[in-house]
Write a structure and sequence with these properties.
Strand content: under 5%
Helix content: over 70%
Oligomer: single chain
Number of helices: 1
Radius of gyration: 36 Å
Shape: rod-shaped
Length: about 80
């Protein structure tokens, strides 16, 4: 193997290594982007879960208010009737 062939192979190897590092850096950037998007999705999912829990508890609260209103109206009617 001549010196020129060795030089040529060394230059080719350096170019290949540079290309490899560029590809690796690009993959790291893309991975960081995906990680950020997944973090945002997880935050949104947590907010959605909290909203669903709040919405699920709302009918129970409305029924409680309705029952208290009916009981209050009945008690007021009974007291009004008793006073007359």
């Amino acid at each position: 193997m001549t010196l020129e062939e060795v030089e040529h192979r060394l230059i080719k190897a350096e170019e290949d290594i540079e290309t490899l590092f560029k590809s690796r850096n690009k993959l790291n950037e893309e991975l960081a982007t995906v990680t950020t998007k997944l973090d945002n999705i997880l935050v949104t999912l947590g907010e959605l879960k909290a909203s669903v829990v709040q919405i699920q508890s709302r009918p129970g609260t409305m029924w409680d208010k309705l029952i208290f209103a009916v009981v209050g109206a009945a008690a007021t009617a009974f007291v009004s009737f008793a006073i007359k």
